[in-house]
Amino acid sequence: MADIGRATLILDAIAEGREPLTLTELATRTGLPRSTVHRIVQALEQELFVVRVPERRGYTLGPGLLKFGMNAHLRLLGSNRNQMAVLARAVNENVELAVFSGREVVVVDQLASPDRLRGVTKVGKSFSLHASSIGMALLAHLPDEQVAELLQTPLTRFTANTVTDLTQVRHRLDEIRRSHIAIDVEEHDLGICAVATGFVGPTGALQVVCVVMPTGRFADKRAQAIEGLQRINPAIVPSAVSLRR
């Protein structure tokens, strides 16, 4: 593995960590030798891609990454806004844009309908991959080996509808790969349903666009939401969407 790949592993581990990580902890999480981690972290520290935390031994992401993150974020939002606005007007429901964030999926943009959902989803909120339509739509684009790495068992149960059996999750991913549509019926939050599609966007990034609505409107608006998403992702096959979800 080239140094760029090792550096990516280290940065991903730090990004996923809830607290600063020491060299030993980084070696354990990445599977790299401690000497290799030390050498690469030193190089990353020189560029301020990682910084040491004075109060605790360990490293966090540094300000050197901001210029890359901000530029990519603005390009991602700008390339999707128009289509999201058309979809939001068509379905009169919240429309969201999300991307991978380590072992979770994070909402990076939202267009709210006049009758918006309050306090459920907001920009910056992250969701578990297995318990959300946005997460499942992204996972469906990955090979099974990578899915297995990302889904650490036991899977967390958020509601009675959350699918926590890994075999069932894999079956659902196969369905999503055929239809290009992922559906969440109160799997992450009671009273909330969502329909999502994942695809490689204009910036080259794997992303997902999602329509979110209260459960009370889902049965009537599900087909309309799928039709609207199909205008954004022509690969969607409505006839292949499972009626069970």
TrEMBL record:
Ranges for domain HTH iclR-type: 1-63
Occurrences of domain IclR-ED (ranges): 64-245
GO molecular function: DNA binding; DNA-binding transcription factor activity
InterPro entries xrefs: ArsR-like_HTH (IPR011991), GAF-like_dom_sf (IPR029016), HTH_MetabolicPath_Reg (IPR050707), Tscrpt_reg_IclR_C (IPR014757), Tscrpt_reg_IclR_N (IPR005471), WH-like_DNA-bd_sf (IPR036388), WH_DNA-bd_sf (IPR036390)
Entry-linked CDD domains: HTH_ARSR
GO biological process: negative regulation of DNA-templated transcription
Keywords for this protein: DNA-binding, Transcription, Transcription regulation
Pfam families: HTH_IclR, IclR_C
Gene3D superfamilies named in the record: 3.30.450.40, Winged helix-like DNA-binding domain superfamily/Winged helix DNA-binding domain
Name of the featured protein: IclR family transcriptional regulator
Species this chain originates from: Gordonia asplenii
Source taxonomy: Bacteria, Bacillati, Actinomycetota, Actinomycetes, Mycobacteriales
